[in-house]
Amino acid sequence: MRFYPIKLPALIVLFLMQGGYAQDNERYQYELKHAEVRLYQRYNPKAASPALLDSAAVFAEQGEYLLAVIFLDEWLAEPGAPLKSDVLKTPESKPLEILLASGVDYNRQEFEIGFMETDSVLSEQLNKPFVNLNIQYTIPSISKAVNRISIKNRYDKDVWQPALELYSRYPSWSGAFNVRYEQNKSLPDFTFLESDLQYYYTKKIGQNTEIRVSEVLRYKNYLQVSDYFPDYLKNDANLNLTRFFKYTGHTTIYYQNGFNESLASSHNDLREHKLGLNFTDRYFQFWTPALECSYNAYRFSYLSQDSLFSNTSRSVGFDLNNSVELASQFQSAWDLSYQSKKYTKKTALDADYNFITSDVKIMWQPDLRLGLEGGYHYEKKNHLQPGGEENVYISEQNYFGHGLLLGLDLQPGEGFLLWINSAYTWRRYPDADQESALTLYTDRNILNLFLTLSYRVTDKLTLEVFCAYDNDQDKDTDRNDTRSTILNAELQYRLW
Q1: Entry pTM
Q2: Is pLDDT at 439 greater than 90 in this prediction?
Q3: Is residue 275 within 8 Å of residue 255, measured between CB atoms?
Q4: Least packed by Cβ within 10 Å: which of 64, 183, 288, 429?
């Protein structure tokens, strides 16, 4: 996974003003859940439906982490998935659970904003200790139904976040309703109330066909509404039709519909339609290919210099993944991705392009406790020039890159899980003027690190750590350098 730090200092200030870091928290929850699934797959690679994992990966790639978590939860709840107690030896769940947590949220963003001999760095940093009290009650049931009520209360020096969640799961469907209030004491105008409604439904048609429907509807209401922070309504819906083959193969046709509607203005309004086909199967007991083809139509609007700009785009693309078991302890993977995107209105910011990436990796897993991987990354983005004065600003955005990939999965004992991913990329802009002090596109060396740690110290005490670090540097000078560090460390104590 690659991370993209925000480039403009003004955007960072706005990001910090919002508080809560909802997107990063959702990504954190997804990565923890994904690491858990990866660990379970070591014990039974053919467990449960791979179509659910494919859907989760699609949503995570789009940044829709709530929908991705829904599909991972469904995978974990399927009869074919290994039980948690079989892997992590977690304590037996009780109807009433009370969890007290304390930790720190650390976020630091650095931007090099100087030119030539007047280099200077703008930095924004938050270091906020917090406490969190979660109360969860599962209503006893003799059937397979699960009904749960959760009350969460998070507090730090600037923000108070109470939340309520109602969750129900039955054999063919699940649903959740969440309400979260965030009171920002340092920036009271950015206090907001947020609620979301989620549901997931599955229906078997015969022995080998399944229909799945999922949706997340979210509403956000600010205490002080503005053009750049309007109240909004967001909806993401997904419809899947899957035909299963023998063993782990399947073909899935899916349709996704999403919109974001700002209620006070048209800033950040969008409509999205996506149609795709996903296929995977296993051949010769060692080769597993997977292919996804998709078409995406996108309409969006945003404020630019106090005026509203609207545009539409269409894109087609494919992702080809090949996994080959080389030996009992070794596995190779080759991933190829291509996207072609075209805009209705051609501008320097919205220019047509073709984008291709490819990864080649070797994985070594001597036993269930250890997994290592290394590989090579290639990327190339080429923008199409419509002609006119803006061509020079479009062509300088073209780039290619080569990178090194490293990864570690470690589970040395019961209740311990460590997952580390890293990427170092040499990105070059061949059509940009590298001598110009004003260009934004200079040759870059980019380091991305990602870490997830979960360690159950005792049956009642658990440590969880999430860390993402990005370092984007000019190859020769300090121009436009950015560094981003996000850390969440939390010590949880099970009171009941």
Answers
A1: 0.81
A2: no
A3: yes
A4: 183
